[in-house]
Design a protein that fits this description.
By secondary structure, this protein is an alpha+beta fold. The chain has one domain. The protein has a four-stranded antiparallel beta sheet, sandwiched between helices. Strand 4 and strand 5 form a beta hairpin. It is globular and about 50 Å long. The N and C termini lie far apart (about 55 Å).
């Protein structure tokens, strides 16, 4: 059996429920990119030479396979998690942190099980995020697989001032992807090649950021400030507030109580 795009979508919707991701996220949106899309080569320059192309990622696990398709999915945070985080000013709500910490475990299970599904049907598959590292963590906090950039290539959304991905269902989400030698028709990018097309630069995310790590231009995003704030202001007292110590918490204040939280907001008329 050769699965269709709809078969892949159905399998991911099934996994969303089966592994418990539905406790943290709404059902996934799924899109497909060609593994040889020129953007993947461009990421060597834009992110760093350490960022894998789909072929490099697949070949590391299946040396004889040729990457054909990248499957990307987006799962919006639940309304309850988003609403609770809207009320926060300094650190994430428990519901939001739980979705980041334990929801990502479920997302990782979806990556793994989608690979198993494809392998059972005779296709090579890898979830690059499961094998990634951060070779440029000191300078740019950049890893060798970016779910956000992959989703951009697949037509899922474009970047905002906070460097998050604004999708049709907003910016408050988790992303996942799998590379496979199964060839499927790529989805078009409704925004062309403009990586910032869906951001109005309204500045709401910058006003929400307690670390002052977001500025008025896309180049102003300061990852170091963001990380420093998380370590110095969210980390202390986390055992008492959240109850767990060994998983990332995130912050997400810039993703809630903003116009793009759960939708793609309309852009102002050109010229204004």
């Amino acid at each position: 059996m050769t699965p269709s795009k709809e078969d892949i979508r159905k399998q991911l919707r099934h996994l969303h429920y089966a592994v418990g991701a539905n406790e943290f996220f709404d059902e996934p949106s799924v899109r497909f990119a060609a593994a040889n899309d020129p953007w993947f080569e461009r990421f060597h320059e834009l992110i760093g030479p350490f960022h894998w192309t789909p072929q490099e990622a697949l070949a590391a696990q299946a040396p004889k396979a040729t990457a054909k398709t990248v499957i990307s999915w987006c799962m919006p945070k639940t309304q309850a998690a988003r609403e609770s985080n809207r009320q926060e000013q300094q650190r994430p709500s428990i519901a939001w942190a739980r979705a980041r910490s334990y929801g990502e475990i479920a997302n990782e299970a979806m990556r793994k099980q989608l690979c198993r599904y494809l392998e059972e049907l005779g296709f090579a598959a890898v979830a690059p995020h499961s094998h990634m590292s951060y070779p440029d963590a000191v300078k740019r906090l950049a890893g060798n697989w970016s779910e956000r950039h992959v989703a951009f290539v697949a037509g899922m959304g474009t970047f905002g001032l906070s460097a998050g991905l604004i999708t049709e269902r907003g910016i408050a989400h988790r992303l996942g992807s799998v590379v496979t030698d199964l060839e499927l028709e790529p989805d078009p990018r409704p925004y062309g090649d403009d990586p910032f097309a869906w951001c109005s630069k309204c500045g709401a995310c910058a006003r929400r950021c307690p670390a002052h790590a977001i500025g008025p231009d896309f180049r102003d995003r300061d990852k170091d400030k963001c990380l420093k704030y998380a370590v110095e202001h969210i980390g202390p007292g986390r055992l008492e507030r959240y109850g767990w110590l060994d998983l990332p918490l995130g912050c997400g204040l810039c993703q809630t109580a903003v116009p793009c939280e759960f939708q793609r907001p309309p852009l102002p008329p050109k010229g204004r």
